[in-house]
Amino acid sequence: MKRFFKPIEKDGSAKKPTRSTNQEDSEKKEASELEKTNSNGNTMKKEPLKFITWNANSLLLRVKNNWPEFSKFVSDINPDVIVIQEVRMPAAGSKGATKNSGEIKDDTNSSREEKQILMRALSSSPFRDYRVWWSLADSKYAGTALLVKKCFQPVKVSFALDRTASKHEPDGRVILAEFETFRLLNTYAPNNGWKEEENSFQRRRKWDKRMLEVVVQLSDKPLIWCGDLNVSHEEIDVSHPEFFSAAKVNGYVPPNKEDCGQPGFTLSERKRFGAILKEGKLIDAYRFLHKERDMERGFSWSGNPIGKYRGKRMRIDYFIVSEKLKDRVIQCEMHGHGIELDGFYGSDHCPVSLELSPASPDSIES
Which UniProt keywords are given for this protein, alphabetically ordered (predicted)? Predict the structure, then answer.
């Protein structure tokens, strides 16, 4: 979708306050406690604390059209982990052959050129400081990516909800990274669609059923579940509840009234999402900190600035954390604002960030 506006860059000119020697010594000591040395002598930090999730709506398009602004944003936030949805790069493998969902296609002139454009962008600052994992669809559809700073080392990275080695979910919708003290689950949930069909309502019901099972299975270790979850849990999570509740396509009305309305805001989806949070003992980090509707900065998806969806916004991108982690949540913010999509960097989704405080020794041992 072509955009008709330019993202506004942050003003980074504010002068930092002078720090005392004692403050600096304290910060150095805290940093040293978070680090360890691996067998190769490289300094490794125990666990990431700062995260960004973003539905890029085609990472290649963002590289071509919005990369300087997004690079500045990442440099300013300086996250330890970046998770991306809707990468929209095809998996490696020739036509008719088995695809390698962990690698980008480069067996044609056009695909090779596109891969080179993307990899050049990821080898520039600040992204060259990150290691990248991919889970890709067979075509330019869906797909996810995980970028982790090289000073962190996941214990394991898998690409399927059942954690089967080398297996990828269809369309590359899942990346699960396990660290020492928690797991990080990046998902791109399938859109509910508008009809009672196999690739619409039925597909989303199956996905939600599997997610409920997964979060319960993963409850032996604190979980951070993030990404485009394609659901707005409560009325406070959309800008215009009446508009979204009444939305329909071509006059079609589903047989079950709980399936009526905008995909992502039907009552059935919202109920299932609530059940997942309850059964998994999970907390919505943003809503934990922000109790009221914020019409300026409280939504992560925005409709086209031209047309009936102008100004219609939803919060469908999340950081969901285990109850065990809630007291460590320092901040969780939407970084886009306004109906002109400032801070969306060309996508229809804005980045969302999460920051945790360091784990105490007691919490690590438990």
Answer: DNA damage, DNA repair, Hydrolase, Lyase, Magnesium, Manganese, Metal-binding
